[in-house]
Backbone:
């Protein structure tokens, strides 16, 4: 591989507190060789490829902690090939894949299969998560030690919390001993079963069963209480409400060691967007009120939320074009994560450096992976984007196999121009 020089780019790397116009030199080994405003542009040579970035922004490749891929069992929704295309088009170079495949990723043989399949069909950095409990039934924990040894990055039962407190305490105890990452979907089952929208005026008007925000709060409070006894690596996958923010604020003051994520959907949309039964905006947790959305923004600015994810969940049209109560939850989002994040900068909600931090270095730190940085010697995973380029979301041009985009026809500002993965140009707009 030839050396590469990315010249005249605005480099933003929160891991090094860099925000400056400069150059990035990529070595022939695919790693960052030099970076910054003191990097001299080498003389033209057949051994060096030059890219004039025209002061576009270069950031570390995005790390997305919440991505569903349909292999195995749901290839008709998404597969490793289509996920890779969508992710790279969105500047995402590392993903944590959810274990709710068919069969579920809850044993060693399935871990070996998913790692092998990801390696053979994708050039993304794939970090698979495994189930917290066998068959996601919440009754028996999985083999943390064996699965971690085989390459599992964390453990989660996606879209459902472990309800049994005894089981959860045992999980956290073992996770503490093993150094394993527990990623909990915080939602009380009894309060949320059969619900599909936020509790309030929208649910009443549409005649739909609701999910109160206290369902989220109860599980967070329980788990953080357990964390006092069993101090493991604990991550809240997604929060959606002001009530949850207040619990996190209180516990952060008590210096409890945990981290919190939020999906970009809950930062950019609210329950009013559901309109008249728009099933493409059915999520788990549901979209909350505008006050809840604003409280999540405030929480990011206050340092209470650590990660923004796409919550990428492809579904076929047959699963979404059903009566609202029966429709599947979720939307695709890995390709549009960055433009939606930039919307929060353009509307002056959150500073740009802070936003970049939440999608690069922070998730990498939580996962304990050497990604989300442009430090010398690290893999040259780089996202180069135009901060101001306007474009309209057309689902037919998105790379995901499924087209259940919650923001269809939305005009966005900011678009990925190039993505480099281990020094190779893998996407160009």
Residues:
């Amino acid at each position: 591989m030839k050396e590469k020089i990315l010249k005249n780019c605005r480099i933003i790397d929160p891991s090094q507190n860099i925000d400056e116009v400069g150059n990035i030199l990529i070595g022939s080994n695919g790693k960052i060789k030099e970076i910054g405003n003191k990097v001299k542009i080498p003389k033209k040579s057949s051994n060096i490829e030059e890219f004039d970035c025209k002061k576009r922004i270069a950031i570390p490749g995005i790390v997305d902690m919440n991505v569903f891929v349909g292999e195995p069992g749901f290839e008709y929704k998404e597969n490793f090939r289509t996920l890779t295309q969508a992710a790279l088009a969105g500047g995402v170079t590392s993903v944590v894949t959810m274990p709710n495949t068919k069969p579920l990723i809850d044993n060693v043989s399935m871990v070996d299969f998913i790692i092998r399949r990801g390696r053979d069909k994708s050039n993304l950095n794939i970090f698979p998560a495994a189930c917290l409990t066998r068959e996601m039934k919440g009754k028996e924990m999985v083999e943390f030690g064996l699965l971690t040894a085989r390459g599992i990055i964390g453990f989660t039962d996606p879209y459902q919390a472990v309800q049994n407190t005894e089981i959860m305490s045992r999980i956290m105890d073992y996770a503490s001993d093993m150094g394993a990452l527990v990623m909990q979907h915080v939602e009380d089952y009894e309060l949320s079963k059969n619900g599909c929208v936020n509790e309030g005026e929208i649910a009443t008007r549409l005649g739909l069963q609701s999910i109160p925000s206290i369902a989220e709060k109860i599980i967070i409070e329980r788990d953080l209480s357990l964390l006092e006894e069993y101090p493991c690596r604990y991550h809240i996958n997604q929060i959606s409400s002001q009530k949850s923010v207040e619990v996190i604020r209180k516990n952060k003051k008590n210096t409890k060691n945990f981290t919190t994520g939020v999906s970009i959907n809950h930062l950019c949309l609210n329950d009013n967007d559901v309109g008249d039964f728009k099933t493409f905006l059915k999520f788990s947790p549901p979209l909350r009120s505008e006050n809840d959305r604003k409280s999540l923004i405030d929480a990011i600015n206050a340092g209470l939320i650590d990660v923004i994810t796409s919550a990428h969940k492809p579904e076929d049209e047959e699963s979404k074009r059903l009566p609202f109560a029966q429709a599947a939850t979720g939307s695709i989002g890995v390709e549009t994560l960055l433009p939606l994040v930039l919307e929060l900068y353009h509307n002056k909600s959150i500073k740009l450096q802070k936003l970049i931090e939440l999608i690069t270095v922070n998730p990498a730190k939580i996962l304990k992976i050497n990604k989300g940085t442009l430090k010398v010697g690290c893999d040259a995973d780089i996202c180069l984007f135009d901060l101001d380029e306007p474009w309209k979301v057309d689902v037919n041009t998105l790379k995901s196999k499924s087209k259940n985009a919650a923001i269809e026809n939305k005009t966005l500002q900011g678009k990925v121009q190039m993505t480099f993965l281990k020094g190779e140009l893998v996407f160009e707009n």
Notes: Residues 61-367 form a domain with the TIM Barrel fold (CATH 3.20.20.140).
